[in-house]
Amino acid sequence: MVEDPDRAERFVTIILNHSERLATLIGDLLTLSEMESGEFSLQLHPVPLAATIRHAAGLVELKAGEKGIVLDISVPDDTPAVLADQGRLEQVFINLLDNAVKYTPGSGRVTVAVTDGEGAVIVRVSDTGAGIPPQSLPRIFERFYRVDTARSRDQGGTGLGLAIVKHIVQLHGGTISVESTPGKGSSFVLTLRKA
Predict the structure, then answer these.
(1) 38 belongs to a structural domain
(2) Ramachandran angles phi, psi of 172, nearest 5°
(3) pLDDT tens readout for residues 165-174
(4) How many domains does the chain fold into?
């Protein structure tokens, strides 16, 4: 470290990045394990959906801005509340928005739109990113599945985020699906029960 401080700093940075990635992987595995244990419980309350989505968008806003991506959060203030666990619901939207920003090239757009359905609220998180090939769509919510492993590794992530999102949505009695056109982007569509 004394003889070559630049090289030492480079190695320490690599070690730090790998240890942070390992900590994230362990955290995601623990979250999935907890959800599948049968002892996992949600604290369900009426949750203001508009405020929850805006809060999640605020957490990815800086990353989007650095890439020149427009975040279009079309969620009216009078959007009905949903019956949810506030923290877990935020986790869903943070994950979906972070993925959308991560896989959308610069100057793209990420949009969140809400539709008031009968007994449920439908949320669509869309991007103008690379899209997902048709053969990958049935597997996108599987643990560790990555559409492009080389690109995913460069971007970070554990390959567990969408599996966690699906579990959380299902535990809330909702559904999630994905629509995508390669080269044009993807849309994740959630239904959540009204409070």
Answers:
(1) no
(2) -85, 0
(3) 998 999 899 9
(4) 1
Would residue 28 count as lying in a domain? no
pLDDT tens digit sequence for 135-154: 999 999 988 777 764 444 45
CA-based nearest residue to 28, from 191, 131, 168: 168
pTM of the model: 0.82
Reduce the DSSP state of residue 145 to 3 states and report it. coil
* Whole-number Cα distances in Å, 23 to 15, 17, 39, 166: 12, 10, 23, 21
Among residues 122, 72, 136, the alpha carbon closest in space to that of 100 is found at 72
52 Cβ neighbours under 8 A, 6+ residues apart? 84, 86, 89, 90, 93
Angle at 143 between CA 43 and CA 139, to 5 degrees: 110
Q: Which CATH number do you get for residue 115?
A: 3.30.565.10
Any domain includes 123 = yes
Residue numbers of the domain that contains 109: 44-193
